[in-house]
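Cross-posting from the modeling subforum.

Setting up a comparison between two proteins and wanted a second pair of eyes on the formatting. Protein 1 (sequence, then C-alpha coordinates):
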Amino acid sequence: MKKSIKAMSVFMSAMLTLGSLGAVSLTAGAQESIGTVTKITSGDFVYTVEDNVATIVDYTGSANALVIPQTIDGRKIVRIGDYALSKKAKLNSVVVPESVESIGSSAFEDSVDLKKVTLPDGVTKIGPSAFYGCSKLTTVNIPAKLEEIDDYTFSGCTQLTDIKLSESVTYVGESAFEGCSNLNSVTLSENTETIGDCAFYECDSLYSINLENVSQIGAGAFVYCSNLDDIDLTNCSLIG
Protein backbone atom coordinates (compact mmCIF):
# COMPACT_ATOMS: atom_id res chain seq x y z
CA MET A 1 0.00 0.00 0.00
CA LYS A 2 2.85 2.38 0.89
CA LYS A 3 4.43 1.73 -2.54
CA SER A 4 1.10 2.50 -4.24
CA ILE A 5 0.73 5.73 -2.30
CA LYS A 6 4.35 6.70 -3.06
CA ALA A 7 3.90 5.91 -6.78
CA MET A 8 0.73 8.00 -6.89
CA SER A 9 2.52 10.84 -5.11
CA VAL A 10 5.38 10.78 -7.65
CA PHE A 11 2.91 10.68 -10.55
CA MET A 12 0.91 13.64 -9.21
CA SER A 13 4.13 15.59 -8.61
CA ALA A 14 5.27 14.95 -12.18
CA MET A 15 1.91 16.02 -13.59
CA LEU A 16 1.96 19.25 -11.58
CA THR A 17 5.50 19.97 -12.79
CA LEU A 18 4.51 19.43 -16.43
CA GLY A 19 1.46 21.61 -15.91
CA SER A 20 3.56 24.43 -14.51
CA LEU A 21 6.03 24.15 -17.40
CA GLY A 22 3.16 24.33 -19.86
CA ALA A 23 1.86 27.47 -18.18
CA VAL A 24 5.31 29.08 -18.44
CA SER A 25 5.64 28.29 -22.15
CA LEU A 26 2.32 29.97 -22.91
CA THR A 27 3.26 33.30 -21.33
CA ALA A 28 5.02 34.23 -24.60
CA GLY A 29 1.90 33.33 -26.59
CA ALA A 30 -0.42 30.47 -27.37
CA GLN A 31 1.25 27.57 -29.17
CA GLU A 32 -0.20 25.35 -31.85
CA SER A 33 1.73 22.39 -33.24
CA ILE A 34 1.05 21.35 -36.83
CA GLY A 35 3.21 18.42 -37.82
CA THR A 36 6.76 19.35 -36.81
CA VAL A 37 6.10 23.11 -36.94
CA THR A 38 4.97 25.01 -33.86
CA LYS A 39 2.99 28.18 -34.47
CA ILE A 40 3.07 30.74 -31.67
CA THR A 41 0.50 33.51 -31.29
CA SER A 42 1.77 36.72 -29.72
CA GLY A 43 -0.58 39.67 -29.83
CA ASP A 44 -1.74 40.14 -33.44
CA PHE A 45 1.09 38.07 -34.93
CA VAL A 46 1.48 34.36 -35.51
CA TYR A 47 5.04 33.13 -35.98
CA THR A 48 7.26 30.08 -36.13
CA VAL A 49 10.75 29.62 -34.69
CA GLU A 50 13.87 28.01 -36.11
CA ASP A 51 17.37 28.46 -34.64
CA ASN A 52 15.82 30.96 -32.21
CA VAL A 53 14.79 33.41 -34.97
CA ALA A 54 11.23 34.07 -36.04
CA THR A 55 9.21 33.92 -39.24
CA ILE A 56 5.92 35.83 -39.30
CA VAL A 57 3.28 33.51 -40.80
CA ASP A 58 0.07 35.47 -40.15
CA TYR A 59 -1.31 38.77 -38.91
CA THR A 60 -4.72 38.77 -37.22
CA GLY A 61 -5.02 42.48 -36.38
CA SER A 62 -6.97 45.20 -38.14
CA ALA A 63 -4.41 48.01 -38.49
CA ASN A 64 -4.45 50.18 -41.60
CA ALA A 65 -0.80 51.16 -41.14
CA LEU A 66 1.27 48.23 -39.90
CA VAL A 67 4.80 48.56 -38.53
CA ILE A 68 6.27 45.11 -37.97
CA PRO A 69 8.64 44.96 -34.97
CA GLN A 70 12.24 43.73 -35.23
CA THR A 71 11.74 41.22 -32.42
CA ILE A 72 8.88 39.19 -31.03
CA ASP A 73 9.01 37.55 -27.60
CA GLY A 74 12.76 38.26 -27.59
CA ARG A 75 13.37 36.58 -30.97
CA LYS A 76 14.60 38.45 -34.05
CA ILE A 77 12.18 38.47 -36.98
CA VAL A 78 14.16 37.47 -40.09
CA ARG A 79 11.42 36.45 -42.54
CA ILE A 80 7.91 37.31 -43.64
CA GLY A 81 6.50 33.89 -44.51
CA ASP A 82 4.45 32.61 -47.45
CA TYR A 83 0.95 34.22 -47.54
CA ALA A 84 1.66 35.89 -44.17
CA LEU A 85 0.02 39.21 -45.10
CA SER A 86 -2.09 38.11 -48.05
CA LYS A 87 -5.75 39.08 -48.43
CA LYS A 88 -5.62 41.67 -45.63
CA ALA A 89 -8.40 43.90 -46.90
CA LYS A 90 -7.87 46.84 -44.50
CA LEU A 91 -4.11 47.06 -44.81
CA ASN A 92 -2.95 50.34 -46.46
CA SER A 93 0.76 50.45 -45.60
CA VAL A 94 3.43 48.14 -44.17
CA VAL A 95 6.89 48.89 -42.82
CA VAL A 96 9.09 45.79 -42.77
CA PRO A 97 11.88 45.96 -40.13
CA GLU A 98 15.62 46.05 -40.79
CA SER A 99 16.00 42.57 -39.30
CA VAL A 100 14.09 40.89 -42.17
CA GLU A 101 16.19 39.14 -44.82
CA SER A 102 13.55 37.50 -47.02
CA ILE A 103 9.92 37.82 -48.10
CA GLY A 104 8.01 34.61 -48.82
CA SER A 105 5.92 33.57 -51.80
CA SER A 106 2.58 35.42 -52.09
CA ALA A 107 3.39 37.23 -48.84
CA PHE A 108 1.16 40.22 -49.68
CA GLU A 109 -0.91 38.65 -52.47
CA ASP A 110 -4.38 40.12 -53.04
CA SER A 111 -4.14 42.69 -50.24
CA VAL A 112 -6.19 44.93 -52.47
CA ASP A 113 -6.04 48.12 -50.34
CA LEU A 114 -2.27 48.03 -49.86
CA LYS A 115 -0.72 51.24 -51.21
CA LYS A 116 2.77 51.45 -49.74
CA VAL A 117 5.39 48.93 -48.61
CA THR A 118 8.76 49.89 -47.13
CA LEU A 119 11.37 47.14 -47.37
CA PRO A 120 14.82 47.12 -45.72
CA ASP A 121 17.94 47.07 -47.87
CA GLY A 122 19.03 43.77 -46.31
CA VAL A 123 16.30 41.76 -48.07
CA THR A 124 18.00 39.38 -50.53
CA LYS A 125 14.98 37.33 -51.59
CA ILE A 126 11.39 38.17 -52.49
CA GLY A 127 9.39 35.08 -53.39
CA PRO A 128 7.13 34.52 -56.43
CA SER A 129 3.81 36.42 -56.49
CA ALA A 130 4.79 38.37 -53.37
CA PHE A 131 2.68 41.39 -54.39
CA TYR A 132 0.44 39.66 -56.93
CA GLY A 133 -2.91 41.41 -57.29
CA CYS A 134 -2.09 44.36 -55.01
CA SER A 135 -4.07 46.58 -57.34
CA LYS A 136 -3.65 49.81 -55.31
CA LEU A 137 0.07 49.51 -54.66
CA THR A 138 1.77 52.73 -55.76
CA THR A 139 5.00 52.78 -53.75
CA VAL A 140 7.54 50.03 -53.08
CA ASN A 141 11.32 50.27 -52.90
CA ILE A 142 13.58 47.60 -54.35
CA PRO A 143 16.09 46.54 -51.64
CA ALA A 144 19.76 47.21 -52.36
CA LYS A 145 20.76 43.55 -51.89
CA LEU A 146 17.90 41.96 -53.84
CA GLU A 147 19.27 39.65 -56.54
CA GLU A 148 16.21 39.04 -58.71
CA ILE A 149 12.60 40.00 -59.32
CA ASP A 150 10.93 36.60 -59.09
CA ASP A 151 8.06 35.27 -61.22
CA TYR A 152 4.75 37.19 -60.91
CA THR A 153 6.18 39.37 -58.11
CA PHE A 154 4.25 42.51 -59.11
CA SER A 155 1.75 41.02 -61.55
CA GLY A 156 -1.56 42.86 -61.43
CA CYS A 157 -0.20 45.89 -59.55
CA THR A 158 -2.15 48.21 -61.80
CA GLN A 159 -1.31 51.44 -59.93
CA LEU A 160 2.48 51.14 -60.09
CA THR A 161 3.81 53.92 -62.30
CA ASP A 162 7.59 53.54 -62.15
CA ILE A 163 10.17 51.05 -60.93
CA LYS A 164 13.90 51.45 -60.38
CA LEU A 165 15.83 48.23 -59.83
CA SER A 166 18.81 48.16 -57.48
CA GLU A 167 22.28 47.39 -58.85
CA SER A 168 22.25 43.85 -57.49
CA VAL A 169 19.26 42.72 -59.60
CA THR A 170 20.42 40.55 -62.51
CA TYR A 171 17.14 38.84 -63.45
CA VAL A 172 13.51 39.87 -64.01
CA GLY A 173 11.31 36.79 -63.84
CA GLU A 174 8.40 35.40 -65.81
CA SER A 175 5.34 37.71 -65.76
CA ALA A 176 7.03 39.78 -63.04
CA PHE A 177 5.15 42.95 -64.04
CA GLU A 178 2.39 41.42 -66.16
CA GLY A 179 -0.73 43.56 -66.30
CA CYS A 180 0.84 46.62 -64.64
CA SER A 181 -1.22 48.82 -66.89
CA ASN A 182 -0.06 52.18 -65.46
CA LEU A 183 3.63 51.34 -65.39
CA ASN A 184 5.26 53.92 -67.64
CA SER A 185 8.96 53.82 -66.73
CA VAL A 186 11.33 51.01 -65.74
CA THR A 187 14.98 51.59 -64.85
CA LEU A 188 16.93 48.35 -65.01
CA SER A 189 20.23 47.92 -63.23
CA GLU A 190 23.38 47.89 -65.33
CA ASN A 191 23.73 44.28 -64.17
CA THR A 192 20.32 43.11 -65.34
CA GLU A 193 21.05 40.48 -67.99
CA THR A 194 17.84 38.46 -68.37
CA ILE A 195 14.17 39.33 -68.75
CA GLY A 196 11.82 36.37 -68.45
CA ASP A 197 8.81 35.32 -70.53
CA CYS A 198 5.88 37.79 -70.44
CA ALA A 199 7.75 39.94 -67.90
CA PHE A 200 6.04 43.15 -69.06
CA TYR A 201 3.04 41.61 -70.81
CA GLU A 202 0.17 44.12 -71.19
CA CYS A 203 2.12 47.00 -69.69
CA ASP A 204 0.41 49.22 -72.22
CA SER A 205 1.55 52.51 -70.63
CA LEU A 206 5.23 51.56 -70.68
CA TYR A 207 7.20 53.99 -72.81
CA SER A 208 10.70 53.84 -71.30
CA ILE A 209 12.99 50.95 -70.38
CA ASN A 210 16.77 50.69 -70.71
CA LEU A 211 17.73 47.38 -72.36
CA GLU A 212 21.25 48.15 -73.53
CA ASN A 213 22.87 45.70 -71.08
CA VAL A 214 20.28 42.94 -71.38
CA SER A 215 21.48 39.80 -73.18
CA GLN A 216 18.32 37.63 -73.09
CA ILE A 217 14.66 38.55 -73.50
CA GLY A 218 12.01 35.87 -73.04
CA ALA A 219 8.99 35.09 -75.20
CA GLY A 220 6.15 37.60 -74.98
CA ALA A 221 8.16 39.88 -72.71
CA PHE A 222 6.72 43.08 -74.24
CA VAL A 223 3.50 41.89 -75.85
CA TYR A 224 0.86 44.68 -75.93
CA CYS A 225 3.35 47.34 -74.80
CA SER A 226 1.79 49.64 -77.34
CA ASN A 227 3.52 52.83 -76.13
CA LEU A 228 7.06 51.46 -76.11
CA ASP A 229 8.67 53.18 -79.09
CA ASP A 230 12.42 53.29 -78.49
CA ILE A 231 14.59 50.38 -77.31
CA ASP A 232 18.28 49.50 -77.57
CA LEU A 233 19.03 45.82 -78.23
CA THR A 234 22.75 46.27 -78.91
CA ASN A 235 23.91 43.55 -76.53
CA CYS A 236 20.92 41.24 -76.81
CA SER A 237 21.85 37.77 -78.08
CA LEU A 238 18.49 36.03 -77.58
CA ILE A 239 14.95 37.32 -78.13
CA GLY A 240 12.12 34.86 -77.42
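Protein 2 (same layout):
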Amino acid sequence: MEEHCNQVMMMKYGQLVNLEVMQTLSGSRILEELKQEKLLKEAAYAKEIKEWDVSSVLCVCVGFYVCLSALKQVCDVYLNISVCIQGRQFQDYRRRVLQEDIQWLRDLVKTQCQQAEAFSREIFLLSHQGGHVLPPGQHPLPSIDPFPIPTDRTTTGAV
Protein backbone atom coordinates (compact mmCIF):
# COMPACT_ATOMS: atom_id res chain seq x y z
CA MET A 1 0.00 0.00 0.00
CA GLU A 2 2.83 2.33 0.79
CA GLU A 3 4.36 1.44 -2.57
CA HIS A 4 1.13 2.31 -4.37
CA CYS A 5 0.92 5.64 -2.49
CA ASN A 6 4.47 6.52 -3.53
CA GLN A 7 3.68 5.76 -7.18
CA VAL A 8 0.62 8.01 -7.09
CA MET A 9 2.68 10.85 -5.50
CA MET A 10 5.35 10.51 -8.19
CA MET A 11 2.75 10.63 -10.93
CA LYS A 12 0.90 13.56 -9.41
CA TYR A 13 3.69 15.77 -7.97
CA GLY A 14 6.80 14.39 -9.63
CA GLN A 15 8.40 13.66 -6.24
CA LEU A 16 7.64 12.06 -2.92
CA VAL A 17 5.76 14.34 -0.55
CA ASN A 18 5.94 14.15 3.20
CA LEU A 19 2.31 13.99 4.35
CA GLU A 20 3.09 14.85 7.95
CA VAL A 21 4.64 18.15 6.88
CA MET A 22 1.62 18.85 4.71
CA GLN A 23 -0.76 18.30 7.58
CA THR A 24 1.16 20.72 9.79
CA LEU A 25 1.21 23.37 7.04
CA SER A 26 -2.54 23.27 6.60
CA GLY A 27 -3.01 24.53 10.15
CA SER A 28 -0.33 27.17 9.91
CA ARG A 29 -0.88 30.61 11.32
CA ILE A 30 0.14 32.47 8.14
CA LEU A 31 -2.44 30.57 6.13
CA GLU A 32 -5.16 31.44 8.63
CA GLU A 33 -4.13 35.11 8.57
CA LEU A 34 -4.28 35.11 4.77
CA LYS A 35 -7.74 33.55 4.85
CA GLN A 36 -8.89 36.22 7.34
CA GLU A 37 -7.40 38.99 5.21
CA LYS A 38 -9.17 37.53 2.17
CA LEU A 39 -12.53 37.63 3.97
CA LEU A 40 -11.98 41.27 5.06
CA LYS A 41 -11.08 42.32 1.52
CA GLU A 42 -14.14 40.53 0.13
CA ALA A 43 -16.35 42.40 2.62
CA ALA A 44 -14.71 45.72 1.69
CA TYR A 45 -15.16 44.99 -2.01
CA ALA A 46 -18.82 44.07 -1.46
CA LYS A 47 -19.35 47.36 0.41
CA GLU A 48 -17.64 49.33 -2.39
CA ILE A 49 -19.76 47.58 -5.03
CA LYS A 50 -22.89 48.45 -3.05
CA GLU A 51 -21.79 52.12 -2.90
CA TRP A 52 -21.15 52.10 -6.64
CA ASP A 53 -24.62 50.65 -7.19
CA VAL A 54 -26.19 53.39 -5.07
CA SER A 55 -24.20 56.11 -6.84
CA SER A 56 -25.10 54.68 -10.25
CA VAL A 57 -28.78 54.72 -9.27
CA LEU A 58 -28.36 58.35 -8.18
CA CYS A 59 -26.68 59.15 -11.50
CA VAL A 60 -29.58 57.57 -13.34
CA CYS A 61 -32.05 59.58 -11.25
CA VAL A 62 -30.15 62.81 -11.89
CA GLY A 63 -30.00 62.02 -15.60
CA PHE A 64 -33.73 61.30 -15.61
CA TYR A 65 -34.37 64.61 -13.82
CA VAL A 66 -32.24 66.47 -16.37
CA CYS A 67 -34.16 64.83 -19.21
CA LEU A 68 -37.49 65.74 -17.61
CA SER A 69 -36.34 69.33 -17.11
CA ALA A 70 -35.32 69.59 -20.76
CA LEU A 71 -38.65 68.07 -21.83
CA LYS A 72 -40.50 70.58 -19.64
CA GLN A 73 -38.62 73.46 -21.28
CA VAL A 74 -39.51 72.14 -24.74
CA CYS A 75 -43.16 71.79 -23.72
CA ASP A 76 -43.15 75.35 -22.35
CA VAL A 77 -41.76 76.64 -25.65
CA TYR A 78 -44.44 74.78 -27.63
CA LEU A 79 -47.13 76.05 -25.26
CA ASN A 80 -45.94 79.64 -25.66
CA ILE A 81 -45.87 79.25 -29.44
CA SER A 82 -49.38 77.79 -29.38
CA VAL A 83 -50.69 80.66 -27.24
CA CYS A 84 -49.06 83.19 -29.59
CA ILE A 85 -50.56 81.50 -32.64
CA GLN A 86 -54.01 81.39 -31.05
CA GLY A 87 -53.68 85.05 -30.04
CA ARG A 88 -52.67 85.97 -33.58
CA GLN A 89 -55.61 84.00 -34.97
CA PHE A 90 -57.94 85.85 -32.59
CA GLN A 91 -56.44 89.18 -33.66
CA ASP A 92 -56.77 88.18 -37.31
CA TYR A 93 -60.41 87.25 -36.69
CA ARG A 94 -61.09 90.61 -35.00
CA ARG A 95 -59.32 92.44 -37.82
CA ARG A 96 -61.41 90.56 -40.39
CA VAL A 97 -64.61 91.38 -38.49
CA LEU A 98 -63.63 95.03 -38.28
CA GLN A 99 -62.83 95.11 -41.99
CA GLU A 100 -66.23 93.56 -42.72
CA ASP A 101 -67.89 96.21 -40.55
CA ILE A 102 -66.00 98.98 -42.35
CA GLN A 103 -67.00 97.58 -45.74
CA TRP A 104 -70.65 97.33 -44.62
CA LEU A 105 -70.57 100.96 -43.46
CA ARG A 106 -69.00 102.04 -46.79
CA ASP A 107 -71.75 100.25 -48.68
CA LEU A 108 -74.37 101.92 -46.50
CA VAL A 109 -72.86 105.39 -47.08
CA LYS A 110 -72.68 104.71 -50.82
CA THR A 111 -76.35 103.68 -50.87
CA GLN A 112 -77.37 106.73 -48.84
CA CYS A 113 -75.38 109.01 -51.21
CA GLN A 114 -77.18 107.46 -54.17
CA GLN A 115 -80.52 108.03 -52.45
CA ALA A 116 -79.61 111.64 -51.65
CA GLU A 117 -78.59 112.23 -55.28
CA ALA A 118 -81.85 110.70 -56.51
CA PHE A 119 -83.82 112.95 -54.15
CA SER A 120 -81.87 115.99 -55.39
CA ARG A 121 -82.65 115.12 -59.03
CA GLU A 122 -86.29 114.60 -58.22
CA ILE A 123 -86.47 117.95 -56.39
CA PHE A 124 -84.72 119.61 -59.33
CA LEU A 125 -87.13 118.05 -61.84
CA LEU A 126 -90.19 118.93 -59.79
CA SER A 127 -89.06 122.48 -59.24
CA HIS A 128 -88.40 123.06 -63.01
CA GLN A 129 -91.64 121.65 -64.41
CA GLY A 130 -93.16 125.07 -64.63
CA GLY A 131 -95.38 125.03 -61.65
CA HIS A 132 -95.32 125.74 -58.04
CA VAL A 133 -94.44 123.03 -55.65
CA LEU A 134 -97.37 122.68 -53.31
CA PRO A 135 -97.03 121.95 -49.64
CA PRO A 136 -97.28 118.27 -48.78
CA GLY A 137 -100.78 118.44 -47.33
CA GLN A 138 -102.57 119.64 -50.52
CA HIS A 139 -101.71 117.11 -53.22
CA PRO A 140 -100.21 113.67 -52.80
CA LEU A 141 -96.80 113.23 -54.35
CA PRO A 142 -96.12 110.35 -56.68
CA SER A 143 -94.79 107.30 -54.90
CA ILE A 144 -91.04 106.80 -55.04
CA ASP A 145 -89.50 103.42 -54.58
CA PRO A 146 -86.79 103.73 -51.93
CA PHE A 147 -83.32 102.41 -52.65
CA PRO A 148 -82.60 99.19 -50.80
CA ILE A 149 -80.43 99.39 -47.70
CA PRO A 150 -78.14 96.38 -47.16
CA THR A 151 -79.77 94.24 -44.49
CA ASP A 152 -77.49 91.22 -44.62
CA ARG A 153 -75.51 92.51 -41.62
CA THR A 154 -76.24 90.70 -38.40
CA THR A 155 -74.14 92.93 -36.14
CA THR A 156 -74.28 96.69 -35.99
CA GLY A 157 -71.03 97.62 -34.32
CA ALA A 158 -67.53 96.66 -33.33
CA VAL A 159 -66.86 93.41 -31.56
